[in-house]
Amino acid sequence: MYETTYHRPSTLAEAASLFSGASEARFLAGGQTLLPTMKQRLAAPTDLIDLSRLAELKGIEVTADAVTIGAGTTHATVATSAEVARAIPALAKLAGLVGDPAVRHLGTLGGSLANNDPAADYPAAVLGLGATVHTTKRSIAAEEYFQGLFTTALEEGEIITRVSFPIPARADYQKFRHPASRYALTAVFAAQMKDGSIRVAVTGAGSDGVFRAEAIEAALAANPTPSALDGVSIDPAGMLADIHGSAAYRANLVTVMAKRAVGGWAG
Amino acid sequence: MAKVSLTVNGKALTAEVEDRTLLVQLLRDVFGLTGTHVGCDTSQCGACVIHLDGRAVKSCTLLAAQADGAAVTTIEGLAVGDELHPVQAAFREHHGLQCGFCTPGMIMSAVDMINRLGGPLDEETIRHELEGNICRCTGYHNIVKAIEAASAQMAGLSQAAE
């Protein structure tokens, strides 16, 4: 790891002013992606601004219509929250599938979203539920937030403060995990919202990162059961391809995972 | 430089380290607690797992400065005098190690999962919980057996204590 200067602000305002005063600063949330990247010397921020102890970024609030989670909340906290499990069980399940137990003890919702890895889990829930990403500057709809591989609507120095997830009528998350990295080779978050509309978001498969599978949404809108997807195929163009799976393999997995997710609605 | 104060295995320790120092480097190179191992450089192997304020974390994926003020338990802090922790004793009893390199992390993860989930734990749960720890010798079978036995024993002990 290259040299860096560590800062631990006690308020968001202090974090923002530290950021603007540094030449090439990065915010440090749980550090479970940023620190490995720095160890590989693939990132070399001059300054690290630790957000992990900011009380302003903590907490889970559940209302009749939404679950709002502080950006600094760890995956382990979301995975074991009885409130989240009652309101959106698929979200608690998703948090429990990130990485491994030690990673979940440090990694955070905000960190995952700010990084927007194309195989990360949380982007699927944010897009799949049409969540709103709140920041130190504004509120961003899921559709506008994700802008391609490791790219988001966040501006320099903008910090995610919390995320509001609308509570669906039913939802499930199905993940085909890479057995070594635990990242999604392909994973699908499928939801039927309280107004009856269907949202299906796919992570791990798209070459532009998380996306909504419109063909699958249309088929489920007509008939919200797994068998509705029997004839639905996804175009391999636009899918990621690497040594772990071809574009055609991932395209097929999208339908398979979507079927399982809709199957999960029953239970 | 960062001044870091920690409680390590019950003892208050302080050190002045470079900001980029990882917690595992502080534990091993400054405090001499070499039971915590570094097996990979990619945060995947789990040989460096320690407990930070009672939760299992990878000490290679945390800056020492981030841990300032925390209570850390390492593999050296588990035994009481000559008496091994039940998980340590179970690893010996069930041959849960061959070369032993991954063992400190395996045991710290095992203690964490038993603390969080209670016991006795079944094989499926143990294997799922061990996803962040890699062993290249044993094929995991005896590690899982050791944790099964220890979790049952510790559940018995905690019932007896109630």
TrEMBL record, chain A:
Which GO terms fall under molecular function for this chain's record?
anaerobic carbon-monoxide dehydrogenase activity; FAD binding
In this chain the FAD-binding PCMH-type domain maps to 1-170
Looking up InterPro entries in the UniProt record yields: CO_DH_flav_C (IPR005107), CO_DH_flav_C_dom_sf (IPR036683), Diverse_Substr_Oxidored (IPR051312), FAD-bd_PCMH (IPR016166), FAD-bd_PCMH-like_sf (IPR036318), FAD-bd_PCMH_sub1 (IPR016167), FAD-bd_PCMH_sub2 (IPR016169), Mopterin_DH_FAD-bd (IPR002346)
Q: Top enzyme class of this protein?
A: oxidoreductase
- Keyword annotations: FAD, Flavoprotein, Oxidoreductase
Q: Does the keyword Oxidoreductase apply?
A: yes
Q: What is its EC number?
A: 1.2.7.4
Can you say what this protein is called? Carbon-monoxide dehydrogenase medium subunit
Instruction: Report the PANTHER family cross-referenced here.
Output: XANTHINE DEHYDROGENASE SUBUNIT C-RELATED (PTHR42659)
Q: Does the keyword Flavoprotein apply?
A: yes
* Organism expressing this protein natively: Prosthecomicrobium pneumaticum
TrEMBL record, chain B:
Pfam families in UniProt: Fer2, Fer2_2
Q: Transmembrane residues, as ranges?
A: none
Q: Which PROSITE patterns does the entry link to? A: 2FE2S_FER_2
Alphabetically list the UniProt keywords: 2Fe-2S, Iron, Iron-sulfur, Metal-binding, Oxidoreductase
Q: Which residues form the 2Fe-2S ferredoxin-type domain?
A: 2-78
Database matches in InterPro entries: 2Fe-2S-bd, 2Fe-2S-bd_dom_sf, 2Fe-2S_ferredoxin-like_sf, 2Fe-2S_ferredoxin-type, Beta-grasp_dom_sf, Diverse_Oxidoreductases
**Top-rank EC class of the record's enzyme:** oxidoreductase
Please give the Gene Ontology molecular function terms for this protein: 2 iron, 2 sulfur cluster binding; anaerobic carbon-monoxide dehydrogenase activity; metal ion binding
The EC number on file is 1.2.7.4
The record's listing under SUPFAM superfamilies reads: 2Fe-2S ferredoxin-like (SSF54292), CO dehydrogenase ISP C-domain like (SSF47741)
UniProt name for this protein: Carbon-monoxide dehydrogenase small subunit
What species does this protein belong to? Prosthecomicrobium pneumaticum
The top of its lineage is: Bacteria, Pseudomonadati, Pseudomonadota, Alphaproteobacteria, Hyphomicrobiales
